[in-house]
Every structure is written in C-alpha cells, then in structure tokens.
Model the fold of this input.
Amino acid sequence: MTDLHRLSIREISEGLAAAKFSSRELTEHYLKRIAKIDPQVRSYVTVTNEVALAQADAADALRQAGQATALTGIPVAHKDIFCTQGIKTSAGSKMLDNFISPYDATVVAQGKNAGLVTLGKVNMDEFAMGSTSESSFYGATKNPWALDHVPGGSSGGSAAVVAADLAPFATGTDTGGSIRQPASFCGLTGLKPTYGRVSRYGIIAYASSLDQAGPMARSAEDCAYLMNVMAGHDAKDSTSMDKAVEDYVANLNATTLKGLRIGIPKQYFNVAGLDAAVKARVEESLKKLEELGAVLVEIDLNMTESYVPTYYLIAPAEASSNLSRYDGVRYGYRAENPQDILDLYKRSRSEGFGAEVQRRILIGTYALSAGYYDAYYVKAQKVRRLIQQDFLKAFEQVDVIAAPTAPTTAYKIGASLDPVEMYLGDIYTIAVNLAGLPAISAPVGFDQDHLPVGLQLIGNYWSESQLLSVVHQYQQATNWHTQRAAIAEENA
Ligand code: GLN
Done:
C-alpha cells in the first residue's frame, strides 16, 4: 500500500485489526517517508528507526496473540521535551544535546503500554520558549504548507510531522499556546487539556503551573484516540488530578450542537493586529456552527489587556527557577576548562542556553528578586486570579468560548519579530493556561496565501470531551481538516 499515511487513526486501527497491513509495514512506510521528505521539513531531531521497528514487531506479535488494543502498533512522534529512556531528550537546547534520559515520561510510558510505536523525537523552540520553533538549537522546522514559513511553536515539530504525514499523530505541550498555535499554523487539530488532566512527570519543565501536554492530529477524532492514552492520574505528579478519565473516542458524539451556547468575547475581535483573513475565516466558522444549531452569545472578557503582561511575568519567573538546575555540574552541557566554580556556572549557562532562554531567565530572576517580588510576581499572581474569575463568570452564561487561535497565520522564517511583537501573538492562547482551562484549535480555512487559519474553543474545567465532540460535529459537516499540503501528497 502506498497511501497508508492518508488513513485516519480509526482507519489505521481498523486496518491493523483486519490484518490489511501489519504494524511493521506501517512503520516502515512512515520511516521511508521521513527519510525522503523530512530533509525538506526538518522536523525530527532524532529518528528512532531500530526502536520503532522492534516496537512494531512486538505490536504485531501481541496482535497475533490476541492481545492488541485499539492503538497497538500505531506510530507516534513525541515532542523532544518528553523524556524517553535511552533516547536523547534535548528540549531543543544545546544544554541537553548530550542528555539521554534514564527514564520515560509518564505520557511516553502510557503510550508504550498502549502499544504505540515511537518514530522519533521532534523539534521545538528551546525549552518550549517561543512561537516559531526557530529558537531550537537544531535550526528552524519548515511549515509543510509553505516551506519558507514557520510551523509555529513551541511544538512546531509536532505540527509539521503531522501536516507533512511524517507521523499519524504527535504529542505536544502547551504552556501558553504551544499546542494550539502550531496546530493553527499547520491546519491541524490540537487539544490543550485542563491543568492536571495529563501527567507532567518526565516533561522537561518550562513553567510548572502552566505546562500541560496534549494531542496534535488532523481531526478531533484522531486527537481523542491519543487523549485516551495520555490522560489520567499519576502518583508521580502531585498536580495531576485523581479524577476518572472519560473515553474521549466513545464520547465524540455525546455533545450536540443544538442549543450549544458559544460565547463571543467582544474584546477578542477588536484586538489590534488581528489579521483580516483570520477574522473572516473565524467568523465564517462561527456562522457554520450557528447553522448546525449553536447559539452565539456576545460576552465580555474584561481582562484581555492584562493577559500578555501577566503571562510574561509568571512564565519567566517559573522558568528562571526551573532552569537553575542546569549548572554544568549535574547533567547537560558543561563548559570546558573552567577556572573555578563560578566560571563553570557562568560559561556553561552562557554557552548552553540560547538568547531567548537567557532573556527569560533574566526577566524571571528580576521579577522574583527581593526588591521586586511584591511589585511584579505577587501582583501578576493577583491579576492571574482576576483573569480566571473573568472566565468563570463567562461560563455562567455560555458553554464554550470562541476565539481566533492566533491573530495571524504563519510568519515567514526569519521575519525577525522583536520579542515583544512575538509575545503579543500569544494574546488568544495564554489566558487559558493562566486559568488552567482546556481549549482546542481546529482548522477553519486559509488566508490569501493558502496558509491555514485556526478557530479556538475554550471550555470550562474538565470539558475536554465536550470540546472534542463539538469540533468533531463541525468536522463531520466541513472538510478543512482533510485538506493536505502538497508535500504530504508526495510519495516516498
Ligand atoms: N509562545 C509562548 C511562549 O513563548 C508559549 C510557549 C508554550 O506554550 N510553550 O512562552
């Protein structure tokens, strides 16, 4: 079969169950595509050929023995922020270029238990700080829709592999939009779950109170399959929630659009910098949802102007604390010939971290320093609470909230946005992390350059099932999610 990469997860699962093809054939098919096409996209940091084939054979053996589950033998790509035992885990940084994790992240372990086959580890902004994947030590990943554009970030590699059909689905992490924005830039569906739904154990930390992992795939249905594997309580993560996991696949039709109240925040559609084509596509998608039975309700989210400043204090503050462990002593990059211990610290960190990471460590350390802690960090935490309350008030009126995922489509590679310009691009995604809410991005069309546009739906706590279901209903009635970039049509 030459078109195995065109199958949805459900079709792959059914094909494997009916012995139309084996996991070995499927895995070889993807590895061949990666070898041929990834030199153009540059999405994989590490391709794990041998591990993948061994896992595929093991999956086929399990199936022979009648012990396969729905996902046994299906390949996946992991963002290079998830620790993988025996395989390099770089977080896109020179600091961890030599780091081989001695253990698996819980998400990776759960994937293995379900029989997923690891194709490799994919590129990302250094330590997940960024919106373009250009800050990676390994260089920029290309957007499969237009190779001179970025795939978004920080989970840009995860988005690019799926959009170029170099993996059927991928894991990502989202601290301030890093699942949703690359999904939007690459025409995919991506879910950022409620904080605490997916274990953070073994995920290289950026900002611990905001980080959350989730699935990236073509459709809500494909995301639901991966979410079934990723979600769950983990005793190894004290912030993971001990709450029963729903069957996201079984629930895909559980929510009806008839009467679903969708909140439209006035402030969101008046943001300076909201691209006209993005606005138009999002409004068209809302119209479609209305046709399908949803009711649009105008709402207020009065804290909108505070999102960027609040996030860009809290996230760097937590990052400065999390990244203090990279000192050249314990693990990771170590400067050569240090003169003394201070020289070792200074040079290991100056040489091992890139510019954006250093900038955030500086901002965060400043905001946490004795003289400024109350004025900046404590103040930001108070505003964070107000942002959360703003959302909770809105959810008294509506079931979900709609927004663009990002104000623009994908930037050109090297567009050299200054940092503040880049931060402003996070306006629609970061408040969700500050409040700990779940949100999903789904493709809803293209701009004049045929670059994908994403619609974001934000739900109340623990409403992952509902969000997936709403997008699934929309995708049953539209075909944006089935469109493929030209490069994905190439055969290996
Ligand atoms: N772009 C945001 C940042 O740079 C979000 C990144 C993320 O979600 N990891 O912090």
User: Anything to note?
Assistant: The pocket of glutamine is lined by residues 128-131, 154, 174-178, 206, 315, 426 (CB under 6 Å).
